[in-house]
Amino acid sequence: MTDSVLPDPDASRAAAPRVPFSLLDLAQVGAGETVAESLAHSRRMAQFADQTGYERIWYAEHHNMPAIASAAPAVLVAHMAAHTSRIRLGSGGVMLPNHSPLAIAEQYGTLAELYPGRIDLGLGRAPGGDHATFTALRRTPSDAENFPADVVELQRYFAGTPVHGVIATPGSGTHVPLYILGSSLFGAQLAAALGLPYAFASHFAPQALEQAISLYLRDFRPAPTRDGGETAPHVMAAATVIADDDADRAHEQLRQAKIHRIKFLFNRGRNMTTAEAEALLDGPQGAQVDEMLRLAAVGTPDDVLAQLDRFAQRIGADELILAPLAGDRDVWFGTVEKLAPPAR
Fold it and tell me: Where would I find the Luciferase-like domain in this sequence (predicted)?
């Protein structure tokens, strides 16, 4: 991995993609890394993305996962915004059932006041953790049932409308853009009903992708905008990516990622060895992981760009949000470098 932030221009690179590229950073804590080292890698990636043509970077709320350091997306957004100047930053997403809408309005309203025009708020209704996480957060699984009403409450806070006599300060009048995240038809229905952009988690749950997008586009109801216009549908899709000049190295990184995911999903309270996880690759557990990563774009940079272009065209995406998966930090950062859209 080089020390420079920007790579030398490569005139032989494949044609620019038809849709904008963004990044989903899970703030993965690699083997042998500390959390501080992981976040330093995330900062370096944000600074590179800021100087190239990526649209936005999002951080996903995860709890009780030692290998993921994105438990507090608002804190990461604030840190990365302070070290960048152009790129949009936000959550992909905040798991709203874990929080009161007022608290989120105040957090992201503060960010919007500090970094105007650069803050997004992606919202999901999954817990972002296990049952123990719910208990520790003083929440219950039934809180997810309030998700649609909580989204509307957030909209009211950002618009400056009092809710139960309370005005979000900061937050009021910031009109932070909201995005609905999902991996099922529920999120598509809600985004369509509210006239909001929709982001599908196809990087780990591709099963309902086409059906959800079709439903979203069919049922979309435009919402009024501040300038007197109306919102239009906006489809984002997430894609796992691993790009390297050595295609075999890229595919080996995908294999290692599958082994890591088998350990995470099927550990069952014990420390599964790498050999044990490898033995499951050809079984039902491996098939489940294969399905999760079915839409991964892996190979040389030109091959990956071509795969992403076909994917975006096939589903009618307006934007792709890329999730670099390689455990090797050189390949991980190299993926972001090699797929970067031209600087603006």
Answer: 21-318
